[in-house]
Amino acid sequence: MKDNIKMKLFSGGLLGTYLLISTLFWPSLSKPHELQSSTPYNTVQQFLIPHNTQRSRLGLRPLKWSRKLEKYASWWAHQRQEDCSFIHSDSKFGENLFWGSGRDWKPGDAVAAWAQERSYYNYRTNSCAQNKDCWHYTQMVWRRSLKIGCSKVTCRGGDTFMVCVYDPPGNFIGQKPY
User: Fold this and answer.
1) Looking at residue 173, what DSSP letter applies?
2) Nearest C-alpha neighbor of 22 from the set 58, 74, 66, 61
3) pTM higher than 0.90, yes or no?
4) How would DSSP label each residue in 49-81?
5) Rounded to whole angstroms, how far apart are CA atoms 115 and 105?
6) Which of 3, 40, 138, 163 has its CB surrounded by the most CB atoms within 10 Å?
7) Does residue 94 contact residue 170 with C-beta atoms inside 8 Å?
8) Is 103 helix (H, G, I), strand (E, B) or coil?
9) Does domain 43-167 fall into CATH 3.40.33.10?
10) Domain locations in the chain?
């Protein structure tokens, strides 16, 4: 049962439908080499589609999958595989982390958890509700972020750890995400 989650610093209309369909069926029209990946295509889409659905709701450009960012995310996830410690990599990229108890977590579960933070974000004040986290969500929809790469590992103890990295990074103090 999916009852233990940790996260740390997460209606599209016609545009959302177009973005969803184009992401599903034509992801490599602009630069085919960008999607070549060691991560299975369906796993890439499980990370990418929900991110771009959130972005389309705000009229933002879709993120593109980056092999470079995927490699970095994979490297960091494997650094955490032994202990599943919820530690950020302190890289030059934006970063969202997810930990779930057990092996049954999917990429879409991590992205959905980050997206749920939308309800805690106040655009007017550019802040999170008191005692709530919303910075995963703002990283997902950071206007200047253009590329994403993610990775998922099963930790030694059997839990799931996922990392998504974003370039350019977001969540700069004093700046609104969109």
Assistant:
1) T
2) 61
3) no
4) HHHHHHHHHTTPPPPEE-HHHHHHHHHHHHHHT
5) 16
6) 163
7) yes
8) coil
9) yes
10) 43-167
